Amino acid sequence: MPPSLTSSRPHRERESIKLSETIHRFRPSKSFSNISPGAEITSLDFDDRGELCIASADDETLQLYDCISGRHQKTLFSKKYGCHLAKFTHSSSNIIYASTKGDDTIRYLSLHDNSYIRYFKGHRRLVNSLEVSPVDDQFISCSADDTVRLWDLKSSNCHGLLNLPSPSLAAFDPSGIIFAVASQASSSIMLYDLRNYDKAPFTTFTITDDAFLSAYSYPPRMPQWSKLEFSNDGKLMLLGTRGHSHYVIDSFAENTSKFLYRVLRPRGFTLPEKEGKETSGSVCFTPDGRYIVGGQGERGVAIWDTNKQPDEKKSLLPSWDLVENVRTQASVVAFNHKTNLLATAYKEAVFWLPEQHAPDPPQSPQR
Known about the structure:
Layout: E1 26-32, E2 41-46, E3 52-57, E4 61-66, E5 71-77, E6 84-88, E7 94-98, E8 106-110, E9 115-120, E10 127-132, E11 138-143, E12 147-152, E13 160-163, E14 168-172, E15 178-183, E16 188-193, E17 203-206, H1 210-213, E18 225-230, E19 236-241, E20 245-250, E21 261-264, E22 283-285, E23 291-295, E24 301-305, E25 315-316, E26 320-322, E27 332-335, E28 342-345, E29 349-354
Parallel strand pairs: 21-25
Antiparallel strand pairs: 1-29, 2-3, 3-4, 4-5, 6-7, 7-8, 8-9, 10-11, 11-12, 12-13, 14-15, 15-16, 16-17, 18-19, 19-20, 20-21, 22-23, 23-24, 24-26, 27-28, 28-29
């Protein structure tokens, strides 16, 4: 049996926001064009209070937005080292982010005075996943150097090291006791107890989908994995990809060789990407855990309702497509865990809010 998921209360509390009456009424409310022409936003994150949003872009800037006033607050530059996967710590004035040039150091930055608090050195290739614990100052990083490292903000030295096939993705469960590592090279998701991370994973899920994918490519090939996330109750995991399908996994499943079901984007869909460029993910759970939100490039945003039953092929189609007035592609998505605010990004950042009198969008056809 997995370790307990309820022995501590997360600091970054995932409050239950009732979205069943509003999720299909989200519309673009404010867009921000603060990055250089031709540049792309590669990550989005909200602070613990849901008041700020940080975006990293491949023009080597960090963009800070005020979610309360709906305004751009400041631009910070990281021209010497580049920046990617910017994440708030439990302080709204501090972030960590991965370097993209010069070295592969993780940097701990004060947004207040744009000064570095600490450097976390050890990775020898690009960091492609960075996640902060929901309960304390620990964080986890994955790199193309085939390592997963555990850190504490108070020390420059990593206190845990795993050697796993790369590339990898990582995620903490809501209690901060369990962390998951996804390795596409081995087609697996491994669950670890943080208190015994140096031991073998207590559960390993094998994720393969050859029968379905054979209809899209030959030989059947899983799309590039891009996001790993737990639902707010820890019972489900969401494995996002850059292709037309994402995967939902039962965290407590006894049959670890199968996923629960896949959620589908339009046939043949592929997100825009630059060679070698990762994002923080184009899909995520809503804070109540019921819905999955995913960017669809020029087709806007799709909403999947996990309360609905997948079809006989283990596929779940979108319940709604939110495409009205969308002027930009959505290759990165993040949902504010404190308020009814959705953020998407590609060449600009867009805040979405529910409009009370917005007409219902047409439901996606059940193909």
